[in-house]
Amino acid sequence: MKASFTLRLPEELRRKIVEEAERSDMSINQYILYTLTKEISYREAEKALKERIRRAPSRKAALKLLDSVVPDVPPIANDKLRRESTTSPKLTRT
């Protein structure tokens, strides 16, 4: 079943949609459908994963499930944690 919607869009958003559709070699309609489908699918997958983690029998099982869906990739170069100073910063009064 198909449905039609009339949307009032700010000019800036309309312009960006046109630009992105052209860049993606899609019609405006195809681009909007693709973008909405992608966003809805992402949210549904996120909701399903959160539910599966919530229902896990233990914390260990939940972490194992999460580990199975998160890719194991090395960090990007220069993506390092800063070491925290072992001394507390001094507070001064003004």
Structure description:
54% of the residues lie in helices and 0% in strands. The protein has 94 residues and is an all-alpha fold. The protein has a domain at 11-69. Helix 1 (11-23) packs across helix 2 (28-54). The longest helix has 27 residues, at 28-54. The chain is extended and about 50 Å long. It starts with 10 loop residues before the first helix and ends in a 25-residue tail after the last helix.
Unreliable residue runs? none
Biggest beta-sheet profile: none
Number of strands: 0
Integer average pLDDT: 87
**What's the tally of helices?**
3
Distance between the termini: 68 Å
**Beta-strand content:** under 5%
Structural class category: mainly alpha
Radius of gyration: 23 Å
Order of helices and strands: HHH
**Percentage of helical residues?**
40-55%
What general form does the structure show? extended
Characteristic terms for this protein:
3 helices, 0% strand, 94 residues, extended, mainly alpha
Short description:
This protein is an all-alpha fold and 94 residues long.
